[in-house]
Structure formats: structure tokens, C-alpha cells
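Replying to the earlier thread about multi-chain prediction with a worked example.

Input:
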Amino acid sequence: MASESTLRASTRAEWIKFRSVRSSLMGVAVTVLLTVGLGVLITTLIRTHWSQFDALRVATFDPVSSSLRGSLFAQFAVGVIGSLFITSEYTSGSIRTTLTAVPNRLRLITSKSIVLFLTILILGEFVCFAAFLIGQRIYLGVVPTSSLENGTVLRSVILAGLYLTLLALFAFALGMILRHSAATISVYVSVLLIVPIIGLFFPQSWQNDFMRFEPSSLGISMESPFAPSNSFGAWSATLVLLAYVVATLALAFVLFQRRDAGTTQ
Amino acid sequence: MIKIDHLTKRYSDTLAVDDLDFEVKPGVVTGFLGPNGSGKSTTMRIILGLDHATKGHATVNGSRYAELRDPVRQVGALLDAKAIHPGRTARNHLRALAASNQIKKSRVDEVLDFVGISAVADKKVGTYSLGMSQRLGIAGALLGDPGVLLFDEPVNGLDPEGIKWIREFFRALANEGRTVFVSSHLMSEMAVSADEIIVIGRGRFITSGSVDDLTKNAEGTVLVRASDHDKLATVVASNHGVVHEANDDGLTIGGLTSDQIGRLAFDAGLAIFELTPQRASLEEVFMDLTAGAVEYGSHPRGPANG
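Result:
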């Protein structure tokens, strides 16, 4: 009878909200298309041109990360999903209805984070495993292949899916801070694309130290069985990215707790 | 029952709510009246825990909003009917709302039916007219069958039939013993739909009471037709009366009773053709009360010639 609004209830509500708007469904479709579709395209191109590859390229060729390259494009799709999950509440004003139903702001953000984390984790793992398996199938017979029976290969594919998940949460946290869809997506894209370009203007020694902290570099580390040069290993990269996400979420929550939610613009 | 306790809200340099202190009782429709920008919406947002009070606090059923268990079951609110994700259907919007407060799914169909939008419940809210959005907002407010209801300018966007419906609906909610708190900037609307009225202006409390009390205490005027209006106006002015309006119908005089005016006219040798005391309308009372408290008023005298 006097059932308290639980985390379970608010999480169920957020799940209904997440799946009942087209932007989420579109984002999911685009993520599949980019990861699997581009994976097919890239691996097919490699297979076709394999005979023209020089000895160095053949020697350093990685069938795992090359089949997962599409995820580096899908990171923009999951970023849009993550940011819209919160910024659409501000642009529509529905954050007011949301908060009158769940006034405990920590519980609300936890619920939203759980929904986003689980959805994108399942989606990310699905597309990464699909891209990997289809890619190996395309390579078969011409290009060297890898198998999931190899522990480091399995780790790479799993971490590629986790990379997408963590980036979606990162975009979500940015959205909570900025409360504006276009601003959030701009900042998110800047962090992923423009920061590495700025890095190119630094001296080589700085680049070596600096660039590995950049999210896309962390992503490449996470999805590679062997650490690329001047990069973190897969687990260290995961921890660094996790630290970014936790720090951004913590800042976002502090602001969310302190700010008035009624006046949105 | 809503209690506002010395509530103050400051946004950077504007004082939106200034030491408001009042109670909203169950069983009656309480109107919350003030010009646009007077702090009504801010007060409602603070009651709902959306905005933080600078000083003082608001409680619902004795608790602050954030501490209520299953708030949708205790408080129903309609602040801004358009504040719903435009890409979601009405049914999904209400389902999420119900899920968050553990309200059974069947209740969603009940409230959709009650407000009369069942037929369009699976259409995206973005396609709704303002009137339909208002109805959806009301459905959301009723979802948890709450004892306390807040509506911010609910009449906006409704057609005459909808306005009639909503007045009767407020009355019915109050008769069931619920607390019904309705804001409006339209005195005429409050005069017909509210029992008790709280008037604010520029964030400050101005007055409160029943509709009857508010008009009773207000100064009435007297409409006079006499043989010489100019002369009568002079006589009235020299006896502390005020001529509010002078036209072909006669003079509208304040500050004097009809008896006093009759005697003054007699002394001045004027013939009286009509002498009608007029009770101030609620609209006039409101204009008088909030005259100094209109945030964005129009100025009758142009600024150029000032």
C-alpha cells in the first residue's frame, strides 16, 4: 500500500521513456549501421587489397581492431543517444514533470545512468561481436584471422563494446552540465575530433605523452589485442576512460543538485 | 494542505518571491492571483521542489516535496502543458509517470478517458493543440489520485467548453475534500472558479480572502446624472470626492456615499436625474490592489511627453 518510490520504479519509468522516443531508436539503428556496416566495408576493402599490402603492413596487421574500426564512428551515434537522453528533457521542459515524479535527484540520475549503461552495453557488445565475427568471415582464406578462443581477442571485442557504453555515459554527463542538445553534441564531438587535431601542433615528445589520454586513443587501446605505440594498455585505457566518466558524472550531479530545474532556458 | 512559510526566492538580482506566507486549505478552490511576472509560477515551482528557495520553505501535507513518498500519489501538478517530450505519445508519457510512482497501468487508461483524449492517446504529443496538451497535463496531475492539486494558468488555450469543464472539475475536486490551488492572472476567471483568493504582486503578498470579502471591503463608486455635470464635479472635488469617469452617462464618483452626493447636489441647487451606488467589481479591486505591483504595465501617458 504505502510503497515507496524505489530505484526500481524510477528505473522502469526511465526505460519506458528511453524506448518511447524515435531519437533513441534512430541512434540504435545508426550505431548498428556504423559499427557493422562500416566493419563490413573496411574488412572487404582490406581483403580486396590484401595482395598489394607491403611487408610492414602485413607484419603489423591486426585482424581484431581492423574489424572493429566502425565503432570509432559509432561513438558519435552513442554520444547523441546519451546526450539527448537528458538534454531533450531540458529542451522540451519535461524535466519538470520528471522531477515532480522523482524529486530525489540522485535516484533520478542513477536510474537514467542504469538505463543508458545497460542499453548501450548490450547494444555495444552486440554490434562489436557482430562486426568482429562478420569481419573474420570476410577475411577468411585471404587475410589472417583471429578467434574469440584467444583471451586477448575476446577482451578486445568486449572492451570495444564497453568503450561505446562509457562514451554514451560521458555524453550524458556533458548533457547534464550543458542542458542543451546542440551545445552538448558540439562539445562531445570537439573532445573526440578536435582535441587530437590540436595535439598535432604540439612537439612530438608532448604528443607522445598527451595523445594517449585522448578518448579516441583510449578506444583504440581498448579494442587492440596489443597496445599500440605510445598508448596505454587495454586495461589502463579502460580505467582512464572510466575515471573521465566518473569525474564528469560527479560534476554533473553536483550541478544538477544545486541548480533550479524549473527555469530551463 | 499547502503551507508557504516566509518564502523568498532571489534570481541573481531579481527578487521573484518576497517573504510570502500563507496556507492553502483543503475542500475549497483557492485562486492564486497576480499580474504576469508576479511570482506565481516561481512559488509553485518551489512548492514542487523544482526550484530552491532562497529563504523560508514550502510544505505539502507537512513535508517538503522532496521528502514525500510517491509524490505523484499525493500531489498532482500541471505547470506547463507543453513541457512534455513532443516525440512521445500521451499513453507512453503517462505510463512512464505511472511506473515511476508504482501506479498501476490501468489507471493510465482511466485518466485518458476522463479528460477525453483516449482517441488520440497513441499520437505524438508534439501534434497536440494547446487545449489537448492541457487535457493531457490534467490527466498527468490526476494519475496518482492525489489529495493536493496545483494548476498554473490552466485556462490558457482552452476553448469555452473546456473552460466550463475545468471550472466544474475544480469544484468537484474541492468538494471531494482535496486541496485545489489554481493560479491565474485573470481576475474574472478567479471570480467564477475560486472560493478563496490569494493576491500577490511583485512577489509580495497583497491580500487574501473570499471573493465576497474582497469586493465588500473595496471602495464602491456612485454613478450620478445631474443637470450640470461640470458644477457637480467641482462641488465633489472640493468635498474630498473623486471623479473617476465623466461622460454622457454621467459621473462616476468615488470617496463619497450616494447620500453625501445627494446632499451636496441639493446644496448646490442641482437637479439629480440618477444616483446609483455601484459595487466594485472584483476586476476593479484587483486593478486597485496591484496597481503598484505590475511588472510589465503599459503606461497611459506616453514617455515622450511624460
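Chain A has one domain: 7-258.

Feel free to reuse this layout for your own posts.
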